[in-house]
Specification:
The chain is built from 18 helices and 17 strands. It has 550 residues and is an alpha/beta fold.
């Protein structure tokens, strides 16, 4: 086995990665994957799809309006569409219909002649809606990855989170479950290899965008999908969106997808028509691809502007709302409801509390929430499921519709519950300065940075390694971008210095540097590549007085 730098071994130890896993972790072609038929009900689902194909039934793929749902829908359209022309898709409007299956949507599908609804990334708890579809003579096949409750959809459900499911990995995205169905179908029928390769790119985008753990089978999926993208990117709509985002498909990383690609795909759904993302991924001519890319990019620019405005309003409301308790519910009615989930996330980052943003819509409110690692948002809200008209989500995020008369009671209940949690554990709101290893400046070199690159793809549960450096000396401080950012160096052995970049709170941290006190740094180490040059640098996340981080 190869010799690893001590810092890399410290990372593996802190993350519980065993020596037997090292080579698989660093492999360019990881092989950890499971038979799709291990998923409960997969055989029944495949038989249902193929029976519909063979009998000429009209199949409708019913997706969610986020990136996971859009990529799932596109994937199913490509795979099942290679077997039948009698297939279409339906993406509910985030603004007019909201998350999940709806009877009104089923009515439209019925009027259009739909005979089998295949849900992707939604539907597991849609009992009334699936019963309604069945009453109209429409079959349903639910593929999903969201948490289950005692209420479950009628008909066939493929979801690794089913209580009776024994699939070895529970962290698949919705698009990951759809991919497993596609693989199972491809074992029974001849799906073109070009399509099976192309859809892996879509699974990669959806898995990263939905913030699924980049471990186990997801790591195999994403690493292989990124390799296909690097080799040329078979999906031409995705390839053009990458180009127009100022990114290089040949070196695309998971973080590029998170911050550069996913928000653009999401933007159309947030502001209106989520089907634009599906249209882009299914498009096969340059004119349409260019048109859809430009619409998505413009929508994202508008989304950014609306988000900034709503966030500022949220911060103002926070001054009052946080007096009511530690479960923050903000009512923001004057902004576009499609950006409120982003606002909830930004406010959560600001105060390290679970945050729900609600917006009035007639006699009810639409809500979207984001949580912190120590608070399971789904579990908290699921206790009050009867208060909602509709509700879904997972531990970190949720969405719901609630009658206006129920809002104050829900707020009171959640603040009571969070107070009880705090009484049991006074540290649930502490800022946790997580780091993988404490190292010295002598250990920071290009070899270490190259090994860190091999840990990619990085994301949830396989984050970019964070290092702690104690008692460093800062030299050559220079403010950037209106004094919000800074570039500086830290001294290392033999007169060597290491370049550092700081992308937030530069003025605050400069005061710490100027105080002359010893400083500890927390951050990541990377290679800054530009054209033919490579530079070692540290991206600084925190600067703290020496000894504050334990």
């Amino acid at each position: 086995m190869r010799e690893f730098p001590q810092a890399i071994l410290k990372i593996f130890e802190s993350r519980g990665i065993k020596e037997a896993e090292f080579e698989e972790f660093f492999s360019a072609t990881p092989r950890l994957a499971y038979d799709p038929f291990l998923l409960a009900n997969m055989r029944a689902g495949v038989d249902q799809v193929l029976a519909a194909v063979d009998s000429g039934k009209r199949i409708v793929v019913y997706g969610d309006y986020d990136v996971d749902g859009i990529t799932s829908t596109s994937l199913m359209m490509k795979v099942i569409g290679s077997l039948t022309d009698n297939i279409t898709y339906y993406i509910p409007s985030r603004l007019d219909e909201g998350y999940g299956l709806h009877k009104e949507s089923i009515d439209r599908i019925y009027e259009d002649g739909g005979q089998l609804i295949i849900t992707v990334d939604c539907g597991s708890v849609s009992k009334e809606e699936t019963e309604y579809a069945h009453s109209l003579g429409i079959e349903t096949l639910v593929t999903d990855h969201h948490n289950m409750s005692e209420v479950r959809a009628e008909g066939t459900i493929i979801n690794p989170r089913l209580p009776e499911d024994e699939y070895p990995f529970k962290g698949l995205a919705g698009v990951g479950v759809a991919y497993k169905l596609a693989l199972a179908i491809a074992k029974e029928r001849a799906v073109p290899k070009q399509i099976m390769s192309e859809i892996l790119e879509l699974v990669t985008i959806g898995t990263i965008a939905d913030i699924m753990p980049l471990l186990d089978e997801n790591r195999t999926i994403v690493k292989c999908g990124l390799r296909f993208i690097h080799l040329g990117c078979r999906n031409q709509g995705l390839r053009r969106l990458i180009d127009l985002s100022g990114l290089d498909y040949r070196t695309l990383r998971a973080s590029d997808i998170s911050y550069g690609i996913a928000p653009k795909i999401n933007a159309a759904g947030r502001l209106g028509d989520a089907s634009l993302g599906v249209k882009l991924f299914l498009a096969d001519n340059e004119h349409d691809i260019e048109k859809y890319c430009n619409i998505l990019i413009e929508a994202n620019q508008e989304r950014k502007s609306l988000t900034d405005k709503a966030y500022e309003e949220g911060l103002e409301l926070l001054k009052t709302e946080k007096k009511a308790g530690d479960f923050i519910v903000l009512e923001i009615n004057d902004s576009h409801e499609g950006v409120l989930g982003i606002v909830a996330g930004k406010v959560r980052e600001n105060i390290n509390r679970p945050v729900v943003v609600i917006s009035r819509n007639g006699d009810s409110y639409k809500g979207t929430g984001r949580s912190i690692p120590t608070v399971d948002l789904f579990r908290m809200l699921d206790r009050y499921r009867d208060e909602f008209s509709s509700f879904g989500g997972h531990s970190a995020a949720c969405g719901f519709t609630i009658p206006a008369d129920n809002v104050q009671r829900l707020k009171d209940n959640l603040n009571r519950d969070i107070a009880e949690m705090l009484s049991e554990d006074e540290h649930i709101f502490d800022v946790d300065y997580n780091y993988d290893a404490m190292i010295t400046t002598e250990e920071i070199d290009m070899e270490l940075a190259e090994y860190i690159e091999m840990l990619e793809p990085c994301g949830k549960e396989n984050e970019v390694p964070e290092f702690l450096l104690r008692d460093v000396n800062v030299v050559g401080w220079r403010f950037l971008k209106d004094d919000r950012y800074a570039k500086f160096h830290i001294e290392a052995e033999g007169g060597r210095t290491i370049e550092c970049m700081l992308f937030h709170d530069a003025e605050k941290y400069h005061a710490l540097v100027e105080s002359g006190r010893p400083i500890d740094l927390l951050g990541s180490i990377e290679i800054n590549r530009w054209r033919d040059t490579c530079r070692l640098q540290m991206i600084v996340d925190w600067m703290l007085p020496s000894g504050e981080v334990q």
